[in-house]
Amino acid sequence: MQQIHDWFLHRGLPLVLTRRVRSRDLVKRSAPMVSGVGALTAVTMLLAEVTGEAPDYGYALRLGVIAALLVAAPFALHLLHRMDTRLGDAGRRSAATLVITLFVVVMPITVSGWTGEAAAEAPAFIAITLLAIWLTYLGFGAIAAWAFRFAWVQLGALGTLMSRALPLLMLTVVVYFTGELWQLAARMTRQRLWEVIGFLALVALAFMVTTIRDEVRALREDRAEQTDTAELLAGTPLAGHPDPPASRLPLSRGEQVNVVAVMVVSQAIQVVFFTAGLFLFYLALGTIAIPDDVAVLWSAEESCAVGEPPCAGTWFGVHVPVPQTVVHMSLLVAVLSGLYFTVSTSVDPLYRQRFFDPLIADVAVSLAGRDVYLELERT
């Protein structure tokens, strides 16, 4: 049965499993997520400190040590996971406990030092740890891992679609050289910019959820009845088990959310790849094509002082050799292009053929396996 459980987790459908199965070894399974969050935080703070005007190298060294430990933790956990001996199981529990201790206890001390601030920040780290354990119970890691694997396999389709998006790129290049938009980007704070990006992301997410929910309903009601369960499950751990009855159990609310989530996340990853590519393109374009005096003229008062070049840009506290207005402008135009890409690809026939149809076929196999698994659990 463990092989069947692993099969569903590998396919990003943890909510198909029973609560008893999903509750096993939560602390041990959530340790890689905790270490990843801690390592990313430590590395970002380290880069921000090193690239600052007056870096504290002692503080940077402490951040580097804790970052190295947290980066190495998932690999150590993976090696221990591959060990089938009792020592390996005990080692996994000990390593998971050590990782969480590093994040909850050592990380606040590293960030704030031996002061009262460390005690004040500890509840935030505890809350993040509890959130990671809850997300592990919901199977967030399994969903994200499956979506990344599927998006990576379908990365070739993204290249084809980006070539078809050249008219959009030419249009946004014209928008990129609009002086009024540069003035808006210059006067927009980073917080307000992220609020705008969050609003556009919610619009794109609502569109994807609505579209994919209809696809899942059609798959369950129409297409699944026209396929052979034994043929779909050939070569899987569920092959050879009795077929489920004709009157299949409807998907529970959690299972519906799970199926929609894996499809939304996989599509969202491709949108993020597309948007990130455009962001880097516009960063390079703005750096090469727009002189500093023109950037100051367009942004009007964006320079740090009269006669000086534009203010240097930052990215999550890390100083980058690009003016701040170029960073804001590139990010804004890239996100607007990503929103258009999200809407256009949902009706593009090539996108459906190269990405959406394989995704639907993959989910059909998972749903067929779900019906057989529930029948096994019932009997």
Task: Write out key terms for the chains shown.
2 domains, 16 helices, mainly alpha, 379 residues
- General form: flat
**Strand tally:** 2
Rg, nearest Å: 25 Å
Structural class: mainly alpha
Overall number of structural domains: 2
Supply the number of helical segments. Answer: 16
Run of helices and strands: HHHHHHHHHHHHHHEEHH
Strand order of the largest sheet: 1-2
**Integer average pLDDT:** 77
Describe this protein's structure.
With 379 residues, the protein is mostly helical. The protein has 2 domains: 7-138, no CATH class; 139-379, no CATH class. It has 16 helices and 2 strands. It has helices at residues 2-10, 19-22, 26-50, 57-81, 86-112, 116-138, 140-153, 155-164, 166-176, 179-187, 190-223, 229-232, 253-289, 292-299, 324-347, 349-378, and strands at 312-315, 318-323. A two-stranded antiparallel ribbon has the order 1-2. The two termini are 14 Å apart.
Any chance you could write out the topology, listing elements then pairs?
Layout (H helix, E strand, L loop, with lengths): L1 H9 L8 H4 L3 H25 L6 H25 L4 H27 L3 H23 L1 H14 L1 H10 L1 H11 L2 H9 L2 H34 L5 H4 L20 H37 L2 H8 L12 E4 L2 E6 H24 L1 H30 L1
Helix pairs in contact: 3-4, 3-5, 3-6, 4-5, 5-6, 7-13, 9-15, 10-15, 11-13, 11-15, 13-15
Summed up, what is this model?
With 379 residues, this protein is an all-alpha fold. It is 78% helix and 3% strand.
